[in-house]
Input
Amino acid sequence: MSQSEVSASAFRSLVEAFPELRVPTPEAAPAPRPLQAAEALRRQLRGAIGTMGDARWRDLLQRMREAAEDGQKEYRLLRFPCDEVRDGGRAIREQEPQWPTTLTGEAADLYRHWEAELKPRGFRISARELEYPGGLPGDIGLFVGWA
Output
């Protein structure tokens, strides 16, 4: 599988295959054909991810794949304090279209990676506030999804 085949649709296939990918019990019957197909897709994605970018990015892609295998439809790339965003998180809180322009540091780097490598493959990205300690804005999460 080539890098271009790491796509949101491939991750959605892992989510759909989640019931078959679970570890079978010893009493279970031999693996049905869908399980064999799901395992083949899992191996292909693992190989393609290994060929991509730097180690940090490959690690995140690996964790995304594992989340899809567990039936999840998104993965939190990063958690960071709202004071690391230019406007304290206001644009994210209000879901304004220009919220990505407020990102700084690692969050901005991850956004650029998503825009260059994952957006063309059908992945989406979102940010949202994760908590409001004492009624005040707290940490923000940056999520990538494939649903």
Observations:
- Residues 47-52 have pLDDT under 50 and may be disordered.
